[in-house]
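Methods — Computational structure assignment.
A single polypeptide chain was analysed. Its primary sequence is given first, followed by the predicted tertiary structure written as structure tokens.
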Amino acid sequence: MEDKIQDVYELRVHKSPYDVANVRARYLKLYTALVYDAMESIGFPGRSMESGIYPLTIDMKVAGPAFTARRCTTPNTDAYTHNIRLGLMKSMTEGCVFLSDVQGNKNCGQFGEITANAMRAHGCSGAVIDGSTRDSNHLISMGFPTFCRFRNPVEGLSRSMIVDYQIPIFVNGIDGMIRVDPGDFIFGDNDGVVIVPEAKTIEVLEIAEKWFESEKRSRKAMADGEDPFEVYNKYGKF
């Protein structure tokens, strides 16, 4: 019989300075390329995760404040592991996105269906794993937006474990490592994942929304055969 674990954990709840549900809904109408360009326009280039982080299906999108976690490769399976996971789950807030730095681990799947179910019950809206998932068909069937670098059927227990959560972490970016703080806004679609600094979440959103409307008008004008130079001069970026 397995030993019972103590219900001992630390709450680390991050409160976003905006209405998360509203902001998530607005981001989900956009696409990553536009959001990336909006960030770059205000002096934040390179904040896209490295190529290779993609959704399990092409129609999955993820948006929400980062709930960060760090893993390490270890055979350790003591109760500390479970207490960390208890605290992690109970610290989640509605709409958050689980973002896991796996420290380059490649010998197991670091995220699966049972974990996704538990996290969803605590408010999590999706996951971005800078590593591997398993139970991929289950994750797809349950409609849980999941982004990863690769897939692996091997159980993570005794190979990799979460050692900390809701702390600054680093993930692989297009120009090197990107620091991600709890609350930074995560947005992903079939092109990949971009990371917006929390303090710039609304500013970037408003720029991207404005461009989105301009692009719709310029797209129609182009399709109607209008002169490309005139379209550019009228609508700007396309």
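Note: The helical segments are 20-27, 32-41, 79-91, 113-121, 136-141, 201-223, 228-235.
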